[in-house]
Write a structure and sequence with these properties.
It contains 1 helix and 13 strands. With about 160 residues, the protein is mainly beta.
């Protein structure tokens, strides 16, 4: 009887280890941020609406740790940071008007589920001004965060 016990125990351990390995091979979830600017071209004094739809895998993120919009006029070092309104169901929005004409940029900084994402968009108020240099391309590194003009990969902290 003891001869069966040891081989049976070894087989159970091996099978148990294999089933756990299959569970670990699941595709990791990513933090996704879909940033929209409406309208992308406006007149001075008009309201511009910024919307960030935040999800983690297929789950809408209604409890992000941080959602902040960073907005600046092209060629300016003055960046304004404004906390987003949590509209629930993964939507974080902001409405703002701009008095000065020109080309503007917006990042939305989103921290949720231990990850950080920073998509970027360009928009114009009135007459466009000289855009910022394209030397860095669509993606650039900013500290420990990766930035892009569209959805970008995120990373954990």
């Amino acid at each position: 009887m003891k001869k069966w016990y040891v081989p049976a125990l070894i087989i159970c351990v091996l099978l148990g280890g294999c089933s756990k390995a299959v569970e670990k091979d699941e595709t990791p979830k990513m933090l996704n941020v879909d940033l929209k600017v409406n309208p992308e071209t406006s007149k001075p004094g008009d309201q511009v609406r910024f919307e960030a739809n935040v999800s983690y895998g297929k789950e809408k993120v209604a409890d992000a740790d941080e959602v902040t919009y960073e907005i600046w006029r092209s060629q300016s070092e003055n960046h304004e940071k404004i906390a987003a309104h949590n509209g629930k169901n993964g939507l974080y929005d902001l409405e703002k008007s701009f008095d000065d004409e020109g080309t503007y940029y917006v990042y939305v900084h989103v921290t949720a589920r231990g990850m950080h994402a920073m998509p970027k968009k360009e928009f114009v108020v009135g007459t466009p001004s000289e855009p910022e240099k394209e030397g860095s391309g669509n993606q650039m590194l900013h500290g420990n965060h990766q930035e892009s003009e569209e959805k970008e990969p995120t990373h954990g902290h």
